[in-house]
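User: Predict the complex.
Assistant: Input components as received:
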Amino acid sequence: MIGPVIDLVDVGKTYQTGSLTVDALRDVTLSIDRGEFVAITGPSGSGKSTLMHILGCLDVPTSGRYRLADEDVADLDDDQLAEVRNRHLGFVFQQFNLLAYLPAWRNVELPLVYAGVEPRTRRARALDALDQVGLGDRADHRPGELSGGQQQRVAVARALVTEPALILADEPTGNLDSTSTADVLDLFDQLHARGRTVVLITHERDVAARADRTIEVLDGRVAGDRGSQS
Amino acid sequence: MNARDLLRTAVEAVRTHKLRSALTVLGITIGITAVILTVGLGQGAKADVQAQIDELGTNVLVVSPGSSTDSSGVRGGFGSASTLTSTDAQALSSTTVAPDVQAVAGVATSSVSLQVDDTNWTTTLTGTTPSWAEVRSRGVSDGRFLTDEDVDDAAMVVVLGPDTATELFGSTDVVGQTLTLDGSTLKVVGVLDALTSSEDTTNNDVALVPSTTYAERLVGGTDRDSVSAIYLKATTESTVSAAYQEANATLANLHGITSTDDADYAIATQQSILEASTSVDRTMTVMLGGIAVISLLVGGIGVMNIMLVSVSERIREIGLRKAIGARPRHIRRQFLVEAAVLGCIGGLLGVAIAAVGSMVLPRVADARVILSVGTSLLAIAVAVGIGVVFGVYPASRAARLAPIDALRNE
């Protein structure tokens, strides 16, 4: 556990649609260290979503090497990728993706269910994660009874609950008003301050500005890398 | 993810979509109800026949009037002619002609209305001889049975079944009372013992009078000598076929029958009645069972349809679950268990409705339904199985979804 959290070397991703070949990512080499707060930006179609999918082990690269938390993940099968996502990654999505029929704490404990954690431990850890995002008193509310900002904080708690090596947030403020946006971004600041590694994918400049380091993606390549500590 | 988590997730999903789940369950419920009732009806009918045979005794033979051919050459069905007479019955009771026949009783029956004061009761009036009690293995609980003197004198006496006595007089303590039939007064001399082995109460609701009284004084008609059936009792169970041969030969001789095709009577043994009725039952059971299986199949397709809808409706949920660490097999199991839960609920409801049906059907359709715990458990197991079998395809579709495609779905 000494190396970087994310280590991409010459990663490429090619999509084949009929006779058309699209190079969504080309020769991306990237390293993110433990405790960094990084924003990945770029216009739509730049390949930042593809990069996010590969970083999140939701998709595998066609070429190159990807080490996540010192584990080679470029050639894993579906089951192994699911396990890696479960152990090392916490996702926050633009659409929150909470299950409407479950109360907040049951949404938060979901990753622990798939990790095979005991029910009693699950509940305790879920409540703890909700405390960390300031929603300890809303544990029994269903998503429909919470505001957008609160729902996104529940989603952050769900990303936190497994103590992942990396929290990956894909346009986390895209569906929020300015007040809630500020709330959620403050939350990411706090997580960063507590030593968490956070990667934020966004096309909004002011959101990206909250991060210490900004990686700009353009035409499937890394076009800029500002504030890098290395 | 352990079994409890799986089950809880499935139950929550079913509860979240109440109407949809209810409609899916309905298909299975109808199928299971149909299967259980079909099996129950089959078993009930079989038990009824068996009980009747047990009551009558396995060494009893029944001779019924056969078909006759009229002048225009039209052949009527069995029973269409009154070809049996009390003479036939007398001939069969001869020990020299039919040594293996222990007792003979000719019966003539008709439906009549009996009256006591203001009470009317419609029952089967049977004109017969004292040997009826021996042939049918019945006795009296009170008073006496018909005697030879009654027959000789054409006495105005009657022996009542226990149910008939209760309906008419309100009790079975009725020896010495009188009742009227079309203006004729009959004196009750005895009450038959009650048969309890069968649900069939017709054997407890009868009125027996001497054959002579029946023919000459009460019913009359043009054919005073004719009987509607002759009951024979073989000496033992092993002489039933010998008794059959003797009776057949005697009657053929009496009726001048040379070819068996022309026989104007039919002799049935209990064995042949049992075989005939079970083969009819079997045909019915196979037919009804086929319909029930088809309805179960339709129910299963309903489950598959709804599960496919459920998968495409919850595509984001599947994507999310996969993103946070669910393996394909977790997703497959989740949907399989959901389908099994739907099947199980359908099965339980089906058993419950069948239980109610088994109480209602005997009242409306005069058919006994026997429900067994075994059949019910099997039916529930089948319902769960149907859920699983028809859930396999939707579940593997859900399991195969790529997480990014599922998450991208708006």
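The first strand of chain B starts at residue 60 and ends at 65.
Let me know if you want any component modeled separately.
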